[in-house]
């Protein structure tokens, strides 16, 4: 099935009729449907599919004559709440389409070629980004992960079981993976500025999520004098402004995008405000400094407000430098058209987790005219998507093919 047909098939799954965005949370019916779709596409191609106990999927094209560690490509199919169509699925659909192209050209790989789909990449339900690939690589253990809860208090272990999976059935193994290449829609406008449909990633900024809990004293919004209050909302408000200012000054990124208020009443001074800071910086040290500066200012303000603050790191990912030799080979000036630009990204990806686990890893980006991501406005033209498929097919042929330089 051609790229465009696969894309059309996926379009209605998990789509919100009101916003046009996608709600493809892990271990929900939308995600089960996506998993079935992938299994059908793999079956139609005769790929050997393995689905593990938590829903990660890896399908291998292993024609006779292939041996040695395989070349894995792929991405994820889940989305953030009200996300775009491209973040994740573009890499999966392009992977299948790239294999189709190689086959139609009669390409015979020397090494197996696999397509992987990792669950809960966005961390939109259980708060842990790249959870599927973290579990597979051992960066997170199942005994720890199964106790994570979603916003409704559902434990991860129960959510996985409710989705018809058996979490005790084990995880897919990456032992046979020699290298990983993830194609992804760009989440910025770097390629627009460079007038290029496709780019190669140099690395991923270190990033993480921190939970800030501001505790005060609930009281009546009318009868409590302003000077008698211990209002954690004020501490939070100043902290959100401080985070923004601090990140601007250092040319980094800091965002409070999620807040929960107790009791969340219009006529009540709140007793508790919980807010999540998403912070990213170009070096590990800069990220530590950034979060430290925000926390320090928050603590100072809490003292003035008579509130208290606790800060908990929920997930932190160190900087990732993708395999430099692999990136320069992919971007190489010898490539027809003069090579692809090499760009950094501020977004986390499964590719970063695999890279940290020691798998030589590369990423390809496809131009996104709006630069917007994690929103229904995320987009890519069909021409650029097809250029991405062709780029991925070239890369897979190079990595899985015969001859010098074929190994990663
Ligand atoms: Zn993604």
List the helices and strands in order. HEHEEEEHEHHHEHEEEHEEEHEEHEHEH
Low-confidence stretches: 403-408
Integer average pLDDT: 93
Number of helices: 12
Q: What is the total tally of β strands?
A: 17
Largest sheet: 9 strands, mixed
Supply Rg: 23 Å
Write up this protein.
The structure is a single chain. The protein contains 12 helices and 17 strands. The protein is an alpha+beta fold and 408 residues long. The strands form 4 sheets. Strands 2, 3, 4, 6, 7, 8, 15, 16 and 17 form a 9-stranded mixed sheet that branches. Residues 403-408 have low confidence and may be disordered.
What's a quick, concise take on this entry?
This protein is an alpha+beta fold and 408 residues long. It is 34% helix and 23% strand. Zinc ion binds next to loops.
What is the topological layout?
Blueprint: H1 3-10, E1 22-23, H2 29-44, E2 48-51, E3 57-61, E4 70-75, E5 81-83, H3 89-104, E6 113-117, H4 131-137, H5 142-145, H6 156-162, E7 177-185, H7 190-193, E8 198-204, E9 207-215, E10 219-220, H8 232-250, E11 253-262, E12 268-269, E13 272-280, H9 284-305, E14 308-317, E15 320-321, H10 324-331, E16 342-345, H11 350-356, E17 361-366, H12 382-400
Parallel strand pairs: 4-6, 4-7, 7-17, 8-16
Antiparallel strand pairs: 1-5, 2-3, 3-6, 8-15, 8-17, 9-13, 9-14, 10-12, 11-13
Bound molecules: zinc ion.
């Amino acid at each position: 099935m051609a790229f465009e047909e696969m894309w059309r098939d996926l379009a209605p799954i998990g789509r919100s009729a009101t916003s046009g965005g996608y709600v493809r949370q892990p271990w929900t019916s939308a995600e089960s449907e996506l998993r079935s779709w992938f299994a059908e596409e793999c079956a139609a191609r005769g790929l050997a599919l393995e689905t593990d106990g938590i829903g990660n999927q890896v399908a291998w094209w292993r024609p006779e004559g292939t041996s040695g560690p395989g070349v894995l490509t792929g991405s994820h199919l889940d989305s953030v709440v009200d996300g775009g169509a491209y973040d994740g699925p573009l890499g999966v659909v392009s992977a299948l389409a790239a294999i189709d192209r190689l086959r139609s050209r009669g390409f015979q790989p020397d090494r197996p070629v696999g397509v992987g789909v990792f669950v809960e990449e966005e961390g939109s339900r259980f708060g842990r980004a790249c959870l599927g690939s973290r579990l597979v690589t051992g960066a997170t253990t199942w005994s720890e992960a199964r106790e994570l809860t979603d916003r409704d208090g559902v434990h991860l272990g129960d959510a996985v079981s409710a989705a018809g999976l058996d979490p005790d059935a084990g995880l897919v193994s990456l032992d046979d993976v020699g290298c990983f290449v993830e194609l992804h829609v760009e989440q910025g406008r770097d390629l627009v500025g460079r007038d290029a449909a496709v780019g190669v990633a140099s690395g991923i900024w270190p990033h993480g999520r921190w939970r800030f809990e501001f505790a005060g004293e609930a009281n009546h919004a009318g009868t409590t004098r302003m000077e008698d209050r211990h209002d954690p909302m004020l501490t939070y408000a100043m902290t959100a402004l401080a985070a923004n200012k601090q990140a601007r000054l250092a040319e980094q990124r800091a965002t409070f995008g999620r807040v929960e208020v107790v009791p969340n009443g219009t006529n009540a001074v709140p007793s508790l405000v919980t807010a999540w800071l998403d912070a990213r910086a170009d070096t590990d040290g800069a990220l530590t400094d950034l979060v430290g500066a925000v926390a320090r200012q928050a603590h100072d303000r809490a003292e003035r407000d008579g509130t208290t603050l606790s800060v908990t790191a929920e997930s932190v990912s160190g900087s990732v430098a993708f395999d430099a030799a692999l990136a320069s080979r992919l971007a190489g000036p010898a490539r027809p058209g003069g090579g692809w630009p090499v760009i950094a990204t501020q977004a986390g990806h499964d590719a970063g987790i695999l890279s940290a686990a020691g798998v030589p890893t590369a990423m390809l980006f496809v131009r996104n005219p709006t630069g917007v991501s994690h929103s229904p406005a995320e987009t890519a033209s069909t021409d650029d998507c097809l250029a991405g498929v062709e780029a991925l097919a070239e890369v897979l042929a190079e990595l899985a093919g015969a001859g010098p330089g074929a190994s990663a």
